[in-house]
Design brief:
about 260 residues, alpha+beta, 3 helices, about 15% helix, about 55% strand, globular
Length: about 260
């Protein structure tokens, strides 16, 4: 069901907490402990801005009683600003009404043109500790900060290069030095010769800063990939998506708090 906002301004807040979530099937199990969810959105004159946050004490996955991965003390925050929500709903309505291809293409171009002019901004920040994969510790600390602004040329509908989607992108990755050095020793960083990593001032962390500019992708201030190297590859997508035969799936959870 598609709901279009008829009010001038609207603020929505939701908050949930769960002490324990278990998702189990015949051979695997996913467990999440002490997860908190918080979402705040503002809809003003048809334009949506908001933040969504998630944090948890631990998430782990097992297959046949063996650990696949485990991640501790993690959080993430997703922010969206200047998103033309009313135009987005009009676009969804065109899809729901099964309009002919010409009208749908027209609505799609109009929606992308509205986004292009809006200056939509996307932010994603995350941090976590102690990622273990197959009983091997991958890192002790990890931090991500990122910021994206959608391209003003989206309405041209020529998605040949990453610059056709993003006008600006800035990503900063930081991990503890020991974990990165271990990854280098195991040849788990194939772009080492192409991308130079810098040390933090206290030498405790390795830092990678990525910045998308008009002429290509920069890493720690140095042009690493020219614009032509950022073109999308043409791939054939298989029709075999998922095997639906296994229906023995169950889950359980314990809610601590809910405030909507």
């Amino acid at each position: 069901r598609i709901i279009k906002n008829e009010e001038k301004d609207e603020v929505l807040t939701s908050k949930m907490s769960f002490e324990n979530i278990d998702i189990v099937d015949q051979t695997s199990q996913i467990n999440i402990k002490n997860i908190d969810l918080l979402s705040i959105s503002k809809l003003i004159n048809g334009v949506l801005s908001g933040d969504s946050e998630i944090s948890f004490e631990k998430i782990s996955s097992k297959s046949n009683q063996e650990l696949d991965f485990e991640l501790l003390n993690s959080s993430a925050k997703f922010s969206l600003n200047n998103f033309p929500y009313d135009s987005y709903i009009d676009f969804l309505e065109a899809i729901a009404l099964n309009e002919d291809s010409n009208k749908l293409a027209e609505k799609t171009k109009l929606f992308l043109e509205t986004i292009s002019k809006a200056g939509v901004e996307i932010k994603l920040d995350a941090n976590s500790k102690d990622l273990i994969v197959k009983n091997q510790k991958m890192f002790q600390e990890f931090d991500l900060k990122s910021n994206f602004i959608l391209s003003k040329k989206l309405n041209e509908m020529k998605f040949e290069n990453i610059n056709d989607i993003f006008e600006f992108a800035n990503i900063e990755l930081k991990t503890d030095s020991k974990s990165f050095d271990d990854m280098i020793k195991q040849n788990a960083f194939p772009l080492e010769e192409k991308i130079k990593i810098i040390d933090s001032e206290d030498k405790k962390y390795k830092i990678l800063k990525l910045e998308l500019k008009e002429d290509g992708l920069y890493t720690n201030g140095v042009l690493a990939f020219k614009k032509d190297e950022l073109k999308f590859q043409q791939n054939n997508i298989s029709d075999d998506i998922l095997d639906d035969n296994n229906t023995n799936l169950s889950y359980s959870y314990k809610m601590l708090d809910k405030d909507t």
